[in-house]
From TrEMBL:
Belongs to the cation transport ATPase (P-type) (TC 3.A.3) family. Type IB subfamily. Gene3D superfamilies: 3.30.70.100, Calcium-transporting ATPase, cytoplasmic domain N (3.40.1110.10), Calcium-transporting ATPase, cytoplasmic transduction domain A (2.70.150.10), HAD superfamily/HAD-like (3.40.50.1000). Keywords: ATP-binding, Cell membrane, Ion transport, Magnesium, Membrane, Metal-binding, Nucleotide-binding, Phosphoprotein, Translocase, Transmembrane, Transmembrane helix, Transport. GO terms for cellular component: plasma membrane. It is a multi-pass membrane protein. This is Copper/silver-translocating P-type ATPase,heavy metal-translocating P-type ATPase, Cd/Co/Hg/Pb/Zn-transporting. Residues 725-745 are annotated as: Disordered. It comes from Microvirga lotononidis. The chain crosses the membrane at residues 102-127, 139-156, 176-194, 200-218, 356-377, 383-405, 680-708.
Length: 745
């Protein structure tokens, strides 16, 4: 009876007619494996996309729902020589830790053997120019063979297993020529020992293995370190929550069992597991992941709280707005995964080179051997030269040149609160010369607040904020955030374009325009104290009040825009808001070129005009009504929030209330782009110099191993410069002026 592998529980369906499965793939050792897996799977009928993340060996597969069973993906990977199982970060990390220990043991064996064989080799080298006897030299050679053969058999397993797996499945990878080189050099050395020759190459073989293992161990260590940046998010997840049942009973449940609308209790010292609105209680929470601020934020009724925040001082009751897959924390992880899995133009170039590597290098080695034999060299010398060519042409430096920069730079962006959506965003961001900002929610903070609450009688403010709970107007939303009592009044009626009204304790109360509330004089008096604020009036019987609502620029907006303009960027504003509301913003930021009253089509036409001038435009917008403009720009960046994160179509998104990430994104992208080109140049120069030298016989197998490992180490160390230093945060004194709230874009 045949067995069927059922993976349906791990399949997700986004709702667009496709199905998605994440698998952990074992046996990946080089860049050529990526092309084998992605290319092999994409040939299956029904597959839409297959992307392998080399950093964590996570394979994301998408196919047309119903086209075939997901078990076929695992079967195809098995046919290609790879084992796969559903991706679970903890299990993958445990497997990687075991593999790291295995590589370290192999490295220790190779290092110990190479030191002892080198001592024997030095004795033979010095003896050959003095008075060593043939019998003593043969003894040293046999002793070296007795050390080298078991050492290579043990320490070479990572390469032997990889090469054999590839050959069994009728393909090649980067380990095949390495293994051929090792076995040829070992065979020549054994033959030379049996023939009592003067020279053997056991020292070169074991040293080669030692340096190869050093490179492989360091590569894995680098990947584990970069994975740790994103894995830190796992520590922010709370596995259980205390749900409050309808009868008041508190039940401890797994986070996965919580649904939107549930009430949960969060005690002091607990990690918040869901996104939610505070129903009751007050506390200080650490939400540095969300805001980028290390200072704790005071929260109370109606405050928004995100999963991953730490509750410190008080007990909170939350109404769940998102749990599990819908939380901000989950979306941040998704963006990090997209950034790591996406491929830039440079990565695609390196993949193409790696794909043709094996046939080219085998051909080069064969041509080298035949050429040397044709010119009268011995088979011995021809084989040694061919071995050197096999080793020195390993494109490890090229394979690492771009991906390691991309991973390190993505980590730097993560620390700056920025997450990429597009693999080629680094290249496009590095070429930006013009920055176009939206106004509301981009240059200004997305939320608005009441500024004269202290001047309003507390009873009137409490009643107005409670009545505001029933209004959909953005000004009323600012008032509603101040409500301590979160229960809306009964029988509230809303007058379109006017406001809301209700009868409470036998008296009518109204909230809305000054005329609707009969509070023209009160509103006019309040507005005279702050001409830039918007006014929302309130009446209750004979009582009247006017609430001033306004929205501020992001705290560092003026300083950041001034810095960007000073560095030569052409900064502009395209806003859907009325021109008289955009003018003070532009003046506060020192932006001379701006337009108000822009419809989405107007913004697109403006961006197209800039592109026709040869400009590389970065559009910074809120990702909702600016989605067409974000798509039309050369590259785009959007502020992020739990509500609109999944709707953001920008190439990158940033967290927090500051504009600093915009400057950091450009700086990190330019640095990464420069390092990518440098690494590709290093890999190219290495091959242009090393391959001819090896072909001409000036490079021994040992020197080839040193050169190959050295080039890989060089590009890795150079890539670490992509971490750099983020721009210094702008001082609080640079905060910009308060500007009026509007409903535009």
């Amino acid at each position: 009876m045949s067995e069927t592998l059922d993976l349906s529980i791990y399949v997700t369906r986004p709702g667009d007619g496709t199905a998605h499965l994440d698998l952990a793939v074992e046996g990946i050792d080089c860049a050529a494996c990526i092309e084998d897996i992605e290319g092999g799977l994409c040939r299956l009928p029904g597959i839409v996309d297959a992307r392998l993340n080399y950093t964590n060996h996570r394979l994301a597969v998408e196919w047309r729902d119903g086209a075939f069973s997901p078990s076929q993906v695992v079967e195809e990977l098995g046919r290609l020589g790879y084992r796969a199982h559903p991706f679970r970060a903890r299990l993958v990390e445990e497997e990687e830790a075991r593999r790291a220990q295995w590589l370290l043991r192999c490295l220790a064996v190779a290092g110990f053997a190479s030191m002892n064989i080198m001592l024997l080799a030095v004795s033979v080298w010095s003896g050959n120019v003095t008075d060593i006897t043939p019998e003593t030299r043969d003894f040293f050679h046999w002793l070296a063979a007795l050390i080298a053969l078991p050492a290579v058999a043990y320490a070479g397993r990572p390469f032997f297993q990889s090469a054999m797996s590839a050959l069994r499945n009728r393909r090649t990878n980067m380990d095949v020529p390495i293994v051929i080189g090792i076995l040829l050099a070992l065979s020549v050395s054994v033959f030379e020992t049996i023939s009592s020759a003067e020279h053997t190459y056991f020292d070169s073989v074991v040293m080669l293995l030692f340096f190869l293992l050093c490179g492989r161990y360091l590569d894995q260590a680098m990947r584990r370190k970069t994975r740790a940046v994103a894995s830190n998010l796992a520590s922010l997840r709370a596995e259980v929550v205390h749900r409050i049942e309808d009868n008041g009973e508190i039940v401890l449940l797994p986070t996965a069992a919580v649904k939107t609308g549930d009430r949960v209790l969060v005690r002091p010292g607990e990690r918040i597991a869901v996104d939610g609105i505070v129903l009751s209680g007050s506390s200080d929470v650490d939400e540095s992941l969300v805001t980028g601020e290390t200072a704790h934020r005071s929260v109370s009724a109606n405050s928004q709280i995100y999963a991953g925040s730490m509750n410190h001082s008080g007990t909170l009751t939350l109404r769940v707005t998102a749990a599990g897959k819908g939380t901000l924390l989950d979306e941040v992880e998704r963006l990090l995964e997209n950034a790591a899995a996406a491929k830039s133009r440079y990565v695609q170039l390196a993949d193409r080179v790696a794909r043709i590597y094996a046939p080219v290098v085998h051909t080069a080695a064969a041509v080298t051997a035949l050429t040397w034999i044709a010119t009268g060299a011995s088979v011995h010398d021809a084989l040694l030269t061919a071995i050197a060519v096999l080793i020195i042409t390993c494109p490890c430096a090229l394979a690492l040149a771009v991906p390691v920069v991309q991973v390190v730079a993505s980590g730097a962006l993560f620390r700056a609160g920025v997450f990429l959506n597009a693999g080629d965003a680094f290249e496009r961001l590095a070429k930006v010369d013009t920055i176009v900002f939206d106004k509301t929610g981009t240059l200004t903070l997305p939320t608005m607040s009441v500024t004269n609450a202290g001047d309003v009688e507390p009873a009137l403010l409490a009643a107005a904020s409670r009545l505001a709970l029933s209004s959909h107007h953005p000004l009323a939303a600012a008032v509603a955030r101040m409500a301590q009592d979160r229960r809306p009044y009964h029988d509230v009626a809303e007058e379109p374009g006017q406001g809301v009204r209700a009868v409470v304790n036998g008296m009518e109360m109204r909230l809305g325009s000054a005329a609707f509330c009969g509070a023209e004089d009160t509103a006019e008096k309040a507005a005279s104290t702050d001409p830039n604020a918007s006014v929302i009036a309130f009446s209750w019987g004979e009582e009247r009040a006017a609430l001033l609502v306004r929205q501020a620029l992001r705290p560092d907006a003026a300083a950041i825009v001034r810095n960007l303009r000073g560095r030569g960027f052409d900064c502009r504003i395209l806003s859907g808001d009325r021109p008289e509301a955009v003018a003070p913003i532009a003046a506060a930021l020192g932006i001379a070129t701006w337009r108000g009253g822009c419809k989405p089509t107007d913004k697109i036409r403006a961006l197209d005009a800039l592109k026709s001038e040869g400009r590389k435009v970065l559009m910074v917008g809120d990702g909702l009504n600016d989605a067409p403009a974000l798509a039309a720009a050369h590259v785009s960046l959007s502020p992020i929030s739990a509500a609109d994160l999944t709707q953001a179509h920008a190439d990158a998104v940033f967290l927090g209330d500051r504009l600093q990430p915009v400057q950091d994104t450009i700086d990190i992208a330019r640095r990464a782009h420069r390092l990518m080109r440098q690494n590709l140049g290093i890999a190219l120069v290495y091959n242009l110099i090393a391959v001819p030298l090896a072909f001409l016989g000036f490079v021994t197998p040992l020197v080839a191993a040193l050169a190959m490992s050295g080039s890989s180490t060089l590009v890795t160390l150079n890539a670490l410069r992509a971490r750099g230093r983020a721009s210094e945060p702008q001082p609080e004194a640079a905060q910009s002026a308060i500007v009026p709230v509007t409903q535009g874009a």
